[in-house]
Automatic annotation (TrEMBL):
Name recorded for this polypeptide: Phosphotransferase
SUPFAM superfamilies found in the cross-reference section: Actin-like ATPase domain
GO molecular function per UniProt: ATP binding; D-glucose binding; fructokinase activity; glucokinase activity; mannokinase activity
Top EC class, one word: transferase
Phylogenetic classification of the source organism: Eukaryota, Metazoa, Chordata, Craniata, Vertebrata
Length: 462
């Protein structure tokens, strides 16, 4: 009897190991990912090969980071998820309280983000008017920075064509249109209302600028939350998409689409394919779907479903709840993986999800969560390693010291994600000393700082 039980457990363990093995990436595989991203970056920066790269490498027309002399009051809008923020940002010297922020969060209902573009931008303007009224700002003409966290092809600081929606947004009549014009048109429809839209900023760029105000060595922005993206300061001589060789340009990588051309298929698992196929944008944002908060819970759920059908979990009983898409939110991964979380507490979370579990089930669930989130952090770290190595080579340095500005709930709230990212960068880019600085006030503050830098530079121009 004992031998039979031991054999059954050994077979079960082997099935678990076989299923999770493709998700446990080796250092050689991570170096491969790093190298492939470097290759895609090079293709994306070149005029003749830009269209072949899965990484868009979009110029942002942000050519300078804060130097500490920026001053003034600015409005900022932050649109990047189901919550929309309006901010009043007051920039002073660091000795005089630095940056003061007053903000309000407004909800974007599903009917708005999946309705028409007119509905979406009218709703945004209504939120801005409500905020200005509460702050006593109606009638005041303040420069405005617009953080728009979706893939855009920018042709100037205040013009950007939406390439495609991501993160569940499907508002019609927006793709292929200038989003600043859509905002300005919505402002005009209010007639008695006026705003001076100065800059359009990606949330990743905003994060970089926000952190650069604190640390001048910050030349990279990273978002790891609902979605994921990165930006960095590139030498103009390498940006063939624009005229001129002098100075620098912040490049919005749009790295969530890395692998959309099939270059990451070798590390793609059956669970990644299931999650991709059931998403609203199949075949797109493949890298993002392996590392960002919107998808990790779904990867876990599909693995748990597989284990249950194999009789490994939940007594082999596939419940309706386990078959329900998006039931296993990524925040549960963060909770389950906390070092202080005991098996009884894990069981309590599973019970909350409607899953009748044993302590043995809890051990396996925790292992699945750890493997999925570690792969995500490893892949994110491989991406940052590619970027810092590119900057080191650009500067012809034997050793680079640089700071990455970071925002996003997955990076900030997961108990181990940040540490794994940092360790991965250290291993894959040993010639770089990389500091990760968390953005305290989000990308909205960065939009105001881009606007402030733009105002400062425009004053200096003859």
């Amino acid at each position: 009897m004992v031998t039979a039980v031991a054999h059954r457990l050994a077979v079960q363990r082997q099935e678990i190991n076989n299923t999770l093995a493709p998700l446990r990436l080796s250092w050689e595989e991570l170096k491969m990912v790093q190298g492939k991203l470097r290759g895609e970056m090079a293709l994306g920066l070149q005029k003749d090969t830009h269209h072949t790269s899965s990484v868009r490498m979009l110029p942002t027309f942000v050519s300078a980071t804060p130097d500490g002399s920026e001053r003034g009051d600015f409005l900022a809008l932050d649109l990047g998820g189901t919550n929309f923020r309006v901010l009043l940002v007051q920039i002073n010297s660091t000795e005089n309280a630095g940056v003061k922020i007053q903000s309000e969060i407004y909800c974007l209902p599903e009917r708005v983000i999946q309705g028409t573009g007119t509905q979406l931008f009218d709703h945004i303007v209504d939120c801005i008017m409500d905020f200005q009224q509460k702050q006593g700002l109606l009638g005041k003409h303040l420069p405005l920075g617009f953080t728009f966290s979706f893939p855009c092809k920018q042709t100037s600081l205040d013009q950007g064509i939406l390439i495609h929606w991501t993160k569940g947004f499907k508002a019609s009549g927006c793709e292929g249109q200038d989003v600043v014009k859509l905002l300005r048109d919505a402002i005009k429809r209010k007639q008695s209302f006026d705003l001076d839209v100065v800059t359009l900023v990606n949330d990743t760029v905003g994060t970089m600028m926000s952190c650069a105000f604190k640390d001048p060595r910050c030349e990279i922005g990273l978002i790891v939350g609902t979605g994921s993206n990165a930006c960095y300061m590139e030498e103009m001589r390498n940006v063939e998409l624009l005229e001129g060789d002098e100075g620098r340009m912040c490049i919005n990588m749009e790295w969530g689409a890395f692998g959309d051309n099939g270059c990451l298929d070798v590390i793609c698992t059956p669970y990644d394919r299931i999650v991709d196929a059931s998403s609203i944008n199949p075949g797109k944002q493949r890298y993002e779907k392996m590392i960002s908060g919107m998808y990790l819970g779904e990867i876990v759920r599909n693995i748990l479903l597989q284990f249950t059908t194999q009789g490994i979990l939940f007594r082999g009983q596939v419940s309706q709840r386990l078959c329900t898409k998006d039931i296993f939110q990524t925040k549960f991964l963060s909770d389950i993986e906390r070092d202080s979380m005991g098996l009884l507490q894990v069981r309590a979370i599973l019970t909350e999800l409607g899953l009748d579990s044993t302590c043995d089930d809890s051990i396996i669930v925790k292992e699945v969560c750890q493997v999925v989130s570690q792969r995500a952090a490893n892949l994110c770290g491989a991406g940052i390693a590619a970027v810092v190595e590119k900057i080191r080579v650009n500067h012809c340095l034997d050793h680079l010291t640089i700071t990455v500005g970071v925002d996003g709930t997955l990076y900030k709230l997961h108990p181990h994600f940040a540490g794994i990212v940092q360790e991965t960068v250290q291993v894959l880019a040993p010639s770089c000393s990389v500091t990760f600085l968390q953005s305290e006030d989000g990308s909205g503050k960065g939009a105001a700082l881009v606007t402030a830098v733009t105002c400062r530079v425009s004053v200096l121009k003859p």
